[in-house]
Task: inverse folding
């Protein structure tokens, strides 16, 4: 038997790319590839890319440039670009960077084995179709290897919302939900291999409406089905749109013990004028009322969000409305970005905000969000939380895991293994993590 070929995958961007990279590694595993952690000894390099902001896309080209020397040394090395830059730029990538052999969009990963074979025959290959078949069904099953305690599982892909700034509806395509039985099978398999916590992924995950035995299931109904799996201890989901936050999902946050008290619910901005121009189809007020209903169902839920500052035509007053909304909601964690023009999206054509003003707003917003994040983290001191241990810490006897609220927690003198869920009392709060002690 010939020595296995080595595959190096570098993943950019969101958690869905992390999931996709795993599946691509599995697909090429069937072709005799094993993963390597270093590009230097790889026979194939795949960059799984993100196109959400300009910086993310530009990083890909600078990374590709760095492989020039490697390719000169190893002419058999194949270089591929996958993910959303591949979808958005297609052939342009090979024109701009001729060392690229393969370009594959997010909906075509199941075709990777054939594509790889063609590159070995010296061809350059490109596939950015949106095929009819379910790529996840066509991808090889995950090998039965043991896994860490947490895993991502894609249940829905694509988005029909068309926010005026966003490339996702163009790069990932229309909203598609995977059938429930396939998801449940995959979840069961993950649990048999050691997974205790599953994060359900979708660009618009709460719009999930996958086929079930008696019609489509909502995300809440899917969660209740997952709840029945013995050995699965925790369920999370991300990312949600406020308009798809249905009653049964809100209720599940109060009644499903396995559903963790953490919700990523991006609002993007606090000014109704800007929300309208973003095509968000909700107002600041309706978002705040929604958060109130969610907190009524689960008072301790930690709310996370995404924000864009400097969206075209955002005034200082509009920005102030975002700050006011943040003050009112009190986020446990949040991600904030300066608006980045994405060619082909409606907002790209509009009058842009002065970059210095946008920078200044981003700094002010981030200072407020950091303060809130710290306050929420500090408020955990003295409380009892569940912690799922993931790995050993740097100190002897120390274990590190995530709390129900997704805070990193260090526990000293901890006689527990990775994959164990324990009750922990939080004793102190540091810069980026909490310290706790085992209860009982
Ligand atoms: N510019 C800046 N941020 C963006 N996001 C999406 N598109 C853009 C853009 N063009 C942010 C949104 C989204 C998150 C994933 O990325 O806040 O929720
Ligand atoms: Fe992009 Fe999310 Fe808006 Fe869809 S809902 S267009 S993924 S920001």
Result:
């Amino acid at each position: 038997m010939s020595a296995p070929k080595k595959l190096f995958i570098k993943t950019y961007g969101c958690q869905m790319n992390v999931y996709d990279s795993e599946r691509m590694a599995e697909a090429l595993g069937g072709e005799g590839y094993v993963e390597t952690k270093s590009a230097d000894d790889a026979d194939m390099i795949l960059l799984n890319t993100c196109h959400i902001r300009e910086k993310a896309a530009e990083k890909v080209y600078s990374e590709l440039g760095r492989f020039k020397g490697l390719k000169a040394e190893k002419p058999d090395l194949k270089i591929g670009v996958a993910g959303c830059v591949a979808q958005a730029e297609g052939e342009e990538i090979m024109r701009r960077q001729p060392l690229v052999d393969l370009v594959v969009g997010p909906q075509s990963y199941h075709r990777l084995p054939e594509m790889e074979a063609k590159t070995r025959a010296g061809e350059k290959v490109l596939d950015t179709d949106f095929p009819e078949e379910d790529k996840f069904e066509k991808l090889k099953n995950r090998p039965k290897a043991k896994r860490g305690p947490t895993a991502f599982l894609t249940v829905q892909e694509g988005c029909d919302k068309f926010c005026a700034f966003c490339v996702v509806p163009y790069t990932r395509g229309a909203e598609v939900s995977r059938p429930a039985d396939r998801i449940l099978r995959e979840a069961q398999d993950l649990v048999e291999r050691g997974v205790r916590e599953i994060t359900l992924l979708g660009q618009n995950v709460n719009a999930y409406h996958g086929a079930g035995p008696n019609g489509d299931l909502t995300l809440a109904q899917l969660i209740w089905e997952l709840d029945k799996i013995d050995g699965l201890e925790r369920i999370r989901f991300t990312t949600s749109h406020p308009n798809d936050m249905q009653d049964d999902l809100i209720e599940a946050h109060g009644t499903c013990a396995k559903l963790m008290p953490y919700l990523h619910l991006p609002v993007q901005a606090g000014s109704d004028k800007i929300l309208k121009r973003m095509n968000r189809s909700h107002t600041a007020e309706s978002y705040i009322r929604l958060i109130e209903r969610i907190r009524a169902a689960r008072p301790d839920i930690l709310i996370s969000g995404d924000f864009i500052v400097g969206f075209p035509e955002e005034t200082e007053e509009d920005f102030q409305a975002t700050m006011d909304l943040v003050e009112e909601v009190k986020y446990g964690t949040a991600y904030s970005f300066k608006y980045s023009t994405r060619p082909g999206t409606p907002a790209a054509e509009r009058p842009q905000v002065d970059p210095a003003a946008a920078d200044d707003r981003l700094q002010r917003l981030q200072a407020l969000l950091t303060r809130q994040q710290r306050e929420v983290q500090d408020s955990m001191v003295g409380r009892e939380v569940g912690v799922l241990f993931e790995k050993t810490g740097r100190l002897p006897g120390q274990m590190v895991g995530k709390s129900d609220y997704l805070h990193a927690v260090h526990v000293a003198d901890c006689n527990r293994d990775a994959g164990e869920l324990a009750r922990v009392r939080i004793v102190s709060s540091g810069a980026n993590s909490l310290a706790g002690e085992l209860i009982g």
